Amino acid sequence: MQDASAQMAVLQFMLSGMKTTAVPSSIHCDHLIEAFAGADKDVDTAITNNKEIFDFLESAAKKYGIAFWRPGSGIIHQIVLENYAAPGKLMLGTDSHTPNAGGLGMLAIGVGGADAVDAMANIPWELKAPNVIGIKMTGKLNPWTSPKDVILKLAGDLTVRGGTGHIIEYFGEGTQTLSCTGMATICNMGAEVGATTSVFPYTEKMRGYLGATGRRAVAEAADAHKDFLRADEGAHYDKVIELNLSEIEPHINGPFTPDLSTPLSKFKDLVKEKGWKDELSAGLIGSCTNSSYEDMSRSASIARQAAAAGISTKSNFLVTPGSEQIRATIERDGQVKEFENAGAQVLANACGPCIGQWKRTDIDKSKPEENAILTSFNRNFRSRNDGNPKTMNFLAAPEIVTAMTFSGKLSFNPMTDSLQDKNGQDFRFEPPHGDDLPGQGFDAGRATYEPPSPTPTSDENVEIKVDPKSNRLQVLDPFDAWNGDEMKNLRVLVKVEGKCTTDHISAAGPWLKYKGHLQNIAENTLIGALNADNGKVNVVTDITTGKEGSIPEVAKSYKSQNQPWLVIADHNYGEGSAREHAALQVRYLGCPLIIARSFARIHETNLKKQGVLPLTFANENDYEKLSGGDVVETIGVKGIAPGKAVTLVVKKQGGEQFEIEAKHTMSTDQIEWFQKGSALNLIKEKVNQ
Ligand code: F3S
After folding, report:
1. Does 546 lie in the same domain as 400?
2. Alpha carbons 171 and 151: distance in angstroms, whole number
3. Residue list, ligand 1 pocket, CB within 6 Å
4. Is 224 within a domain?
5. Which among 26, 420, 439, 652 has most CB atoms closer than 10 A?
């Protein structure tokens, strides 16, 4: 879990009553560090500003035997690759780029906090069986091309939706030519095509990486089972794509979407055709996607050539090492010096500008101007890096980014174009080069991890630190168990029309700082929902006063009067993400039941986990018969069983009354969650038995 998503996951786990997590778990402080004044200062500032969050996570980690990686230790996916990933294992991570560990032959899946709670609390975790795309790799990359270009090209071919519902499995002799960290880069960005995860077969390079990171025993175990750690002969794929690595050239993707892919040789023409200003304001390398020893070494080889030719950078140049181990190793081996000589600022080992934690000072935020940046990161949605919607953010390999900062021009092609050296002569870069593993081994750097790997021990006596006055963290109270009776006198709070994603139910943006405080984040409940009765967003009538108010206001008012309420929803209610807050919040505010035309599967399960009963209309036209303010009663919740319909008695405000049929998809286990008030209540009961 990374520090942003870990908060609610750990708060929920606390409700399980378990002494330690059911599977080995770790927390990584990487998202909450803002890039501004340089590595050490930025980490110190983050520790001050987020003290309560870090203290909470650290104390909870100690109590439950969770590994805790302090601020400054590095980015979750890099640390996982260096310490935990192993061929043939299965891992869940509460971050979409978790599949990075596929570079070590692991099935690593990005999930929401609720899924992490399942794994930690021993609740069965489910995933709709994905299809498999096979990618057959042949050939070998050219010197200017890197693994990043493989996935940049694939993103263009597959588009951002091409991998949805699929695992991408790489196979073929080309896989043997790639470094372990290069394969991790490719798997990392499988998230950009929507893939469930991506995985490579176990290779010699993986063996070398495991040895270099102190895990020879893991390599030996993988060697002993290597026939299982690759695609079966004649395996059937739902789709096969052939990729000749020798034919791939560097690519630049963007702006604003990772699948707008342009080969480097054509990018100059695109800049002209689009009329973009031919200026590069900043180049950023590193992040969880591209901060391996190989990436840093190849990029430094470019900086070294420029230094020898007396050429300095023309754009701002920022370097984010992925981990303390990488930072210390490239400092010892000289790459940091080479970057700094080129004018680079080396940032903290953290997400920083990749997640908008970039206090950019070279652009006036009050007058956002169009400008272009080039990053070796993985995502480039509008405003993602610096909050400026006019910043055009392009993605490329780190060596290409580095070379282009020495030109300062967007149209520069380092493979073919020249710069002027200190004597006014034409200078052209040689292809980058660099080792995938450090000759002298890795330097672990400063101690940022406690207790020592690999097995943290739990300590029941540790007190979890949550300030009751905090507005960012709040210990959760268990939800009440079902009273065993039919639901009576439920008031329709809102009848939602059209699309209602988890973002509409629990908005992100400024609300993210309240992720660990259910009461505070509940202030955003359904604020994006369109009310079918009045055509307004986030406006409903409070039936007790007759006045209009926002959805959270009226929900809170009902809660204070012990008035349970429900939501009537349209199709695919809760689509979008696995954000568990969307289920927790409605439940917290007093909603035990939601009736929809249909649910998004993950959100429906999340509702069940929190003890909310999700029903669908047996006849979806019955949606039209209900409106805000109606009173609903159930017949059939008592004695609820898998596959058995529930009847709803609807009383309109005018006095009219009728019955409609509703269905549910609860299994026997899930019915127990509902009966106990939540899945975690059930776990707690079992723990206490
Ligand atoms: Fe962090 Fe960006 Fe990776 S936010 S986890 S560096 S995608």
Report:
1. no
2. 15
3. 30-31, 75-77, 95, 97, 287-288, 351, 354-355, 377-379
4. no
5. 26
Report how far residue 380's alpha carbon sits from residue 517's, in angstroms, rounded to the nearest whole number. 29
Listed residues 427, 444, 463: the one ending a domain = 427
Contact 46, 72 (CB under 8 A): no
Of the candidates 389, 411, 427, which is a domain's last residue? Answer: 427
- Its domain, for residue 628, covers 490-688
Same domain, 415 and 284: yes
Answer yes or no: do 406 and 509 share one domain: no
Determine, yes or no, domain membership for 207: no
Indicate which residue's Cα is closest to atom 2 of ligand 1. Answer: 354
Residue 1 alpha carbon to ligand 1 centre in Å = 12
Distance 44 CA to ligand 1 centre (A): 20
How much is the mean pLDDT over the chain? 95
- pLDDT of residue 681 exceeding 90: yes
Q: Order of strands, edge to edge, in the sheet holding 345-346? A: 261-263, 251-253, 391-395, 371-375, 282-286, 316-320, 345-346
User: What CATH number did the domain enclosing 559 receive?
Assistant: 3.20.19.10
The catalytic residue among 5, 16, 31, 230 is 31
Q: Is 278 a catalytic residue?
A: no
Question: Active-site residue among 3, 95, 149, 542?
Answer: 95
Bridge partners for 69 per DSSP = 28, 449
- Alpha carbon distance 313, 345 (integer Å): 12
Residues 283 and 426: beta-carbon distance below 8 Å:
no
CA dihedral 546, 551, 554, 559 (to 10 degrees): 150
pLDDT grade for 455, boundaries at 50, 70 and 90: low
Q: Within this chain, do residues 413 and 553 fall inside the same structural domain, yes or no?
A: no
Report how far residue 327's alpha carbon sits from residue 304's, in angstroms, rounded to the nearest whole number. Answer: 18
Helix axes 601-609, 113-121, angle to 10 degrees: 50
**Does residue 362 share a domain with residue 255?**
yes
Q: Two tokens at 541? A: 């009538």
- Amino acid identity for residue 471 in this structure: N
371-375 vs 391-395, strand pairing mode: parallel
What pLDDT, on the 0 to 100 scale, is given for residue 364? 81
Same domain, 259 and 348: yes
As a whole number of angstroms, the distance between CA 57 and CA 51 comes to 10
- What's the total number of domains in the chain? 2
- Among residues 70, 207, 384, 579, the one annotated as catalytic is 579
Using DSSP, how many helices (H) and how many strands (E) does the chain show? 21, 27
**Widest CA span of the chain, in angstroms?**
91
513 and 387 co-located in one domain:
no
| Distance (Å, whole) CA 594 – CA 663 | 12
Q: Are residues 501 and 412 in the same domain?
A: no
Q: Could you give the 3-state DSSP secondary structure of residue 510?
A: helix
Question: Is the Cβ–Cβ distance between 172 and 416 less than 8 Å?
Answer: no
**pLDDT tens across 369-389, in order?**
899 999 999 999 888 898 888
Residue 137 falls inside a structural domain:
no
173 found inside a domain: no
Cα–Cα dist 337/343, whole Å: 10
In three-state secondary structure terms, 311 is coil
Ligand 1 center–CA 351 separation, angstroms: 5
DSSP line for 340-405: HHTTPEE--SS-GGGGT-B---SS-TTS---EEEEESSS---TTTTTS-TTEEEEE--HHHHHHHH
